[in-house]
Amino acid sequence: MSSWRYEVLKKFQNQNSALVLVHDEDYLLNDELIVGQLKEYGYDMVRFEDSVSFRYFYEHKYRRREDEWKLIVYTNEKIVFPYEFLQKGFSLSIQTGSIFPNFSTPILRSMNREDFDALFAVHAQYQGSSSDKETLVYIVKQLYKIPYEMIDSEVELYKLLLSLHYRQKEIPVVVQSFLIEHFGKVVAFKPLPLEELISSSAFFYSFIEEQWAILAEEYNTFQNEQALERREEYKPHPFANHGVRRLMNDLFLEGILSKVKGVSVEHLPDWMKTGIEVEAKQGDIHHKLLHINEKIDGKLADIKLYKDWIEIAELVAEYKYNALESMDTGYDEEAEKVMMKVNHSFQDWMLKQFHALTSLPPFPSPKMVHHIPHTIQARKTNNEKVALLVLDGMNFVQWKQVKNYLKDYDFSFEENGVFAWVPTLTSISRQAIFSGNVPYTFGNTIKTTNSEEKYWKAFWENQGILKQYVAYQRGLGKEEYNRNTIQALKRSSVKVYGAVIDVIDQFTHHAVLGEKSLVSNLSLWLQTNYLVQLLIDLLNEQYTIYLTSDHGNTNAKGIGRISEGVLVDQKGERVRIYSDRTLYEDSLSKINSIPWSNVGLPDDYYVLLSQYKEAFVTKEEHIVTHGGISIEEVIVPFVKVQQK
Is residue 362 part of a domain? Predict the structure, then answer.
């Protein structure tokens, strides 16, 4: 346990009160290791949203057994807890200032909590004042290792930005502003859109792709090697620098940067060929998959936080997407080995750590699907119109396919990943998205999706937006696109739009030839341009668009149908749900399955999950399905869609 965490945890050690009310305006409890340790101390944790929701939660989960539990209720706002709970419990506040007393508190509050381990280490050597400027200069140099004073050429700037964006390093806004101000004074950077290059990964990658395409076209005009050599000697391009080139090669190999299409490689230097789209050769595919596999192994060896799994999910998706696109079936087999390796570790992590994830707040970014509307609401400005499109059943592999298609229409993306609720069923995880709540709050409707519109409008009404300004639709994508059927476009009064496009989920359940047929069907649907037209029309109407999924999907093979009749409350291909604990425990002793804790689920909701690659269907039957805890089912995209 890192020392800064100890400074937080010691406030809870030897605490006699069963109810602890915590003011945490600095988001110090936004750390899964702290949450996990508090769980070991015997505490449940819940974030206080409002008094009505909390009273409902308290009455249903704790009132009847007050002598059996210890509960931490925390808030990130300046609010007063209800009087009866203040009387019943013990209240305290935790602040960054007490952990890092030598630093400026406003600067500290802008830092990412994931950086606090390193921040605590460099804090011990700090000799400056607690002013904003001195604190910020020290943090930029010592924490982020950015020698900003020495960066005065495009080569060095590209090296820095490629490294930061590639490592998915979230640079706080205050540090971004510092760099933008400093680099804005450098003459060599005057022509560059510095603010966007530093602050937005989507913009940066689009910019690099555009500059790369221009360079490829320019180099392609040279008719012989001598002319090319004279060009490179006269004015070497920053991309030709070895350090820049190495970082860009990784981005091309991992599918983060798109290769240039329609350019001959005949007269291009060797260092450019990695970024040019040519007819796929077995050696090229093998090299790419080998690179991704090595990256996956490196990350698996160093898992610390939930974010590490999101990065692995993206790499796994790129590996599998390329394997599925290849005509060589041998790569399919290799992909399955990679998936087995990853899911062996992921399943173990889910069983041990998922409970900690459910206690984290939805800010500054969502961790789970029910956080999504909260995050959108926090980012939304007063007059901004927002649209949330849920592509039901889409995992990261299908997102790679969708993304690659959309990029040809000049869309760009701010990408992240979030965790679905378990079991990964539509009625659970999709309702969580549109309600903004954990599943125990909608126990009465947990088997159906018919209340999503009601929940979606209620959520936004609680945020101060009247129901008549909120729209919801589902079942989109099956018909030919017609903008007059889209409520966000038909009604000018709509400010918040939520919609379900469920074609991928339907393709999944009818993928008789496995994932290959899913790829084929999705490709055909994308070519109808339903999604392209919808996105263009929403952007033209000034909507800020977010795109996500409720759960993913995975390959599985039947282990035999299980006959329990009315004893089982709900039957799925990868999950079985019981309302009676005795029946659940009896089935657990007979069925080869994984018992799942009912964290976040109703009290009478007991879950058995199938093992990875297995399903409760006819023996040896191959299907594409969902419901379990594989990385393909659990981690789904959360994307902000923009035009370049």
Answer: no
Other CB atoms within 10 A of residue 87 CB: 8
Enumerate the H helices of 358-380 as residue ranges: 372-379
Element of type H or E holding 518:
helix 515-526
Q: Which of 430, 431, 631 minimizes the C-alpha distance to 549?
A: 430
Can you give 304-339 as a three-state secondary structure string?
CCHHHHHHHHHHHHHHHHHHHHCCCHHHHHHHHHHH
Of the listed ranges 64-68, 425-429, 511-515, 621-625, the one predicted with least confidence: 64-68
Element (H, E) at 521: helix 515-526
Do 292 and 268 lie in a common domain? Answer: no
d(Cα 545, Cα 404) in Å, to the nearest integer? 18
Provide the token pair at 282: 């077995």
Q: What is the 3-state secondary structure (H, E, C) of 59-112?
A: HHHCHHHCCCCEEEEEECCCCCCCHHHHHHCEEEECCHHHCCCCCCHHHHHCCC
Per-residue burial over 279-289, b if 16 or more Cβ lie within 10 Å, else e, is eeeeeebeebb
Q: Largest Cα–Cα distance in the chain?
A: 84
Tell me the helix, strand and coil percentages in the chain, rounded to 5.
Answer: 50, 15, 35
| 569 assigned to some structural domain | yes
Task: Give whole-number Cα distances, 557 to 330, 340, 560, 632, in Å.
Answer: 19, 14, 9, 15
Chain centre distance of CA 97 = 30
Q: How far apart are CA 633 and CA 629, in angstroms?
A: 6
Please report the sign of the dihedral spanned by the C-alpha atoms of residue 489, residue 490, residue 495, residue 501. negative
CA dihedral 354, 447, 396, 359 (to 10 degrees): -20
Mark whether 376 and 503 lie in a shared domain. Answer: yes
Task: Convert the pLDDT of each residue in 416-472 to its tens digit.
Answer: 999 999 999 999 999 999 999 999 989 999 999 999 999 999 999 999 999 999 999
Say how far apart CA 593 and CA 601 lie, in whole Å: 19
- The DSSP string of 408-462 is TTTEEEEEEEEEPPSS--HHHHHHHHHHTS-GGGGGGGTT-STTHHHHHHHHHHH
Residue type, 466: L
Helix 306-325 and helix 515-526, axial crossing angle in degrees, nearest 10:
90
Both 388 and 421 in a single domain?
yes
From 177, 200, 223, the end of a domain falls on 200
On whether the CB atoms of residues 222 and 231 are closer than 8 A, the answer is yes
pLDDT digits (tens, 9 = 90+) for 128-173: 999 999 999 999 999 999 999 999 999 999 999 999 999 887 889 9
pLDDT, one tens digit per residue, over 3-17 is 899 999 999 988 888
C-alpha 614 chain-centroid distance: 26
Q: How many domains does the chain have?
A: 6
Contact yes or no for 436/459 (Cβ under 8 A): yes
Which residue range forms the structural domain that includes residue 291?
A: 283-356
Write the Ramachandran bin of 168: left for phi over 0, alpha for psi from -120 to 50, otherwise beta: left
Question: Which residues are bridge partners to 144 per DSSP?
Answer: none
415 with 545, same domain: the answer is: yes
- Strands 554-558 and 575-578 come out as unpaired
Closest by CA to 627, choosing from 614, 641, 642, is 614
Output phi, psi for 155, to 5 deg.
-60, -50
